[in-house]
Amino acid sequence: MSILVTGVAGFIGFHVAGRLMERGESVIGLDSLDDYYSVALKRARIKELRGRHGTRFHFNQTDFADTVALAEALDPLSFDRIVHLGAQPGVRYSIENPHAYARSNIVGHLNLLEVARQRDSAHFVYASSSSVYGGNETLPFKVEDRVDHPRSLYAATKKADELMSECYAHLYRLPLTGLRFFTVYGPWGRPDMAVWTFTKAILEGRPIDVFGEGDMRRDFTYIDDIVTGVLAALDNPPADDGASKAGGSRAPHRLYNIGNNKSEELSRLIGVIEAACGSQAEKRLLPMQPGDVRDTFADITAIERDLGFRPTTSIEEGVPRFVAWYREYYGI
What are the chain's domains? Predict the structure, then answer.
C-alpha cells in the first residue's frame, strides 16, 4: 500500500518521499507547485524523485485546499498512511498575505483530516512548527508548554492545525502525530531561509541582512535528522489506550519537537557559512522583523524517550554539505 505525502515538491516533503522510497515504499506525492518560491526548484525536485525511483513515485499536481479537486485527485488512488507536509510556509509572508495561510494551513489541513477519517488511515503525521511557541521565554521549548501567544498568523494557523487534529483524534479515534520542526536546512533547501540566503549573498559578493542585530539564536536542524524523526513517528502510531501522550492528549494524538537540541547564535552560523564559502560576509545589522522571535531551542526529551530519536548532525557538518550542494546545483 502506498503512502500519501503532501507538499512533496517542498523541501522536507521531497526528502521524506525519497527516504520512504529508498526503503521500498511507494509514494503518492501531492503538491500544487505554488509560486511562493521558485517553481523551477520544485519541478527539479519532482524530476529528481522520478529519476531516482521510477514507478514507485506517482505525482499529482493538486491544491489540497480545493476540496473538490482533492477528492477527484485521490478517488482512484489507494494509500493507508498520510504524511501531511504541505502548507503555506513563512512567518513574514503571513503578515503580507494572511488569506493564503487560512486557506492552505487551515482549510487544507481540515481537508486532509477528512481524507484520513473517510479512509480510516492507519496513521496521519503532520507538520507543525516551532513558531507555535511564540512569546514563550522559557528555554528550551517543551511540548508541555502553553502555546497561546503566537507572534505571527503562520504560528496561529499551525496551532489551529494541532487543535483540529486533537478534535479528530478524540471524535474519530484517528491516530495522529504532529511534529514541531525547528529551522530546517540542507541540500535542496528553501531559498527564503537564512542558510540559503546567506550562502547566496556571500558567493555573489553581496552584503547579508542580519536581523535582530545578530543577537538571535536558532535551533538549526539538518534535513537528514528531520527525515529520520518523521519516519520514526510514522512507523510508530500512538496507541488509543487512554494514556497521556506527548503534548498531553489522552486521545491517539501526540506532539513532538524535532530539533537539533542546540540553540546556535546567528553570528556563529554565519561564521560556519563563511568558512564553507571561503569568503567573509559584509553584514548589515538590522532590527528584528515583525513576527520573529529572538530565540528557539528544542527540548526533544519526548521524542527521544518514545521513539529513540536523537539528531546527529552539527552545523559544522551540515552547512558545508549544503554549500557543496548549492555550488553543484548552480554550477558555481
Answer: 2-182+223-261+297-312 (3.40.50.720)
